[in-house]
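We emphasize that the prediction below concerns an isolated chain of 308 residues; any contacts that depend on oligomerization or on bound cofactors are therefore not represented. The input was used exactly as deposited, without trimming of termini.
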Amino acid sequence: MSGFQLNAVPLLSRTSLDRAEDLRADEQALKEGWAQAKLLRMNKRGQVRVEDGTVVLEPAVGLAADPAPEAVFLGVRDGIHLWAVRDNALDGTLADLRAYGTTLQLDDFGTGLLSTAIALLNWHDRAGFSAADGGTTRSTNGGWSRTSETGHEEFPRIDPAVICLIHDGGDRVLLGRQNSWPEGLFSLLAGFVEAGESLERCVEREIKEEVGVDVRDIRYLGSQPWPFPRSLMLGFTAQADPEQPLTFHDGEIVEAHWFTRAEVRQALAAGAWGAQDSGEFAATDRRLLLPGSISIARTIVESWAAAS
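Result of the prediction step, given as a token string:
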């Protein structure tokens, strides 16, 4: 069956965070809300302090008496303003989004809070100088823009990337393994959209470059933020001929195989990589390991496997 749809909203797309865009440029409102605001501290690895599986939010006034220029405004919950700041001196029990379901327990609000904080702080780390004039920039609009000394305003950059499930029109799916991944870990093929390129042409190019096959019947499925460091994953499905030889042109994929629906269902039932080891790659004798639940790849594979 080739015409399947996603049977669930990808995990990081389910956010219930109220981003409160109308408050970002209101310096007075942000200042007034700071007294009761909560602050999320995050290190450069995207880790936050966790207690009993819950993300720790502390009083913002512990950082400064007024909104600190290095903090970013995330939104509002129950009338309380929420901010995040980079803190590389975090101690205690730490976890990041990749530890979802193990060390870290999150609801839709929590996933939105963390993914937004990661993406914004990662952008600020790399946006200290203006791309237009090379001058230094300062954080403005609650951290949702940066402005140079000449008044040029820049906004958070998002890098679009496609991710595609390739099937044979029946009961087989093509999955690949990157060189840095452990033996047995396979996922969908993906790549960044190039300048002047449509999403569909990107799907065609990336798959041809990575495994050497031609695809057709390209269909959009859904999207998910992927703040590692600041991507947007756009999910697709496409059909290919399993008799076409696999070739690995760009060196990113070191092996790929066609797996049956039964094999995929068995792998899904056995759990994802990292499920038993707090998100680190683990040695395994299983032929097929699949990505964890925070990836849209998992949702796409589960949806295809459930179709019949």
